[in-house]
Specification:
By secondary structure, the chain is α/β, with parallel strands linked by helices. It is built from 8 helices and 10 strands. The chain is about 40% helix and about 15% strand.
Length: about 290
């Protein structure tokens, strides 16, 4: 994957029947600073558009010549047969190729289906485009097999369609020049594949390694523990100091002393003065004066 390139927009070509709107909306939400330009092309012009550099990627119908192009299959379309509403096929819920044996089946030059053997009876000549074939179907000359998206694209009130149970199907793929796999191409691949915005392949997203995540969590904990230990140490030193103070208070019932001798003397004073000094210290600790009898 190459470095992020500064580009005014990302150009996406798409062939008839493909609806890139849902992916375009996700793109605008995730990359509002990079406009997505949609380039409508005819089915036969998809590959030439990419090879000429007139689009960064394209939603094309397979097969795609993989020489210099990458392609990721996205989905497979249902094939339908289009016919006039008053045709006898309208009574069927699903049609097979055998049902078309007596009908003229058009095979336009831009046909997107791969046939090993054409069904039905051949037309006198092949229509140039699917749109031309639709006009002939509306005139009652024959029927047409197309991906369902094309039947919807060329919808007419006087025509209808039914699902074909055993016909070839058309597959849609995302394709792009193999040597131009930029970060923006990777972004669009992630969108069509359903990756989340927090994906590690997302632009500007960096996923923390397990070691980094562990260090980020444990280091503050250790620091906090050290601080807690320091606090406990301070409390211990405070307790030691208060003990010395009590010793000093006990010594106060004897005669004052300073420095180290005060502590030792306090020990002797506690022993000599007995309960009188000890009771005063205990009362002081309880926070109330000792009641005299």
């Amino acid at each position: 994957m190459t470095e992020m390139q500064v580009t005014p927009s990302f150009r996406l070509a798409y062939v008839p029947g493909v609806t890139p709107g849902k992916w375009a909306r996700v793109w605008s939400e995730r990359l509002p600073d990079v406009p997505l330009a949609l380039v409508a092309v005819e089915a036969a012009d998809g590959e030439p558009t990419l090879r000429a550099g007139d689009a960064d990627a394209g939603l094309l119908r397979l097969p795609v010549d993989r020489t210099g192009l990458s392609a990721i299959p996205l989905y497979t379309e249902t094939t339908v047969v289009v016919f006039p509403k008053d045709h006898w096929l309208a009574a069927a819920e699903e049609v097979t190729l055998g049902d078309l044996a007596d009908d003229v089946v058009f095979h336009p030059l831009d046909d997107t289906l791969e046939w090993e053997q054409l069904p039905g009876r051949p037309a006198i000549e092949r229509p140039a485009t699917t749109a031309d074939a639709i006009e002939l179907v509306a005139a009652g000359v024959g029927v047409l097999l197309v991906p369902q998206s094309l039947a919807r694209l060329h919808h007419r009130r006087d025509l209808t369609y039914r699902t074909m149970a055993d016909a070839p199907q058309s597959r849609i793929a995302l394709s792009w020049p193999e040597e131009q796999t930029t970060d923006l191409v990777e972004e669009f691949i992630g969108i069509v594949r359903g990756r989340t915005v927090n994906s590690s392949r997302g632009r500007g997203q960096t996923a923390a390694t397990p070691a980094e995540a562990s260090a980020g969590k444990s280091a503050p904990g250790r620091a906090g523990g050290a601080k807690g230990a320091a606090g406990k140490g301070g409390a211990a030193r405070g307790a030691a100091g208060s003990g010395t103070g009590r010793g000093g208070a006990a010594k106060g019932s004897g005669k004052p002393a300073a420095g180290g001798r005060a502590t030792a003397g306090g020990g002797r004073a506690r022993g000599g003065s007995g309960s009188s000094s000890g009771g005063g210290a205990a009362a002081a600790r309880r926070g109330r004066p000792k009641r005299r009898s």
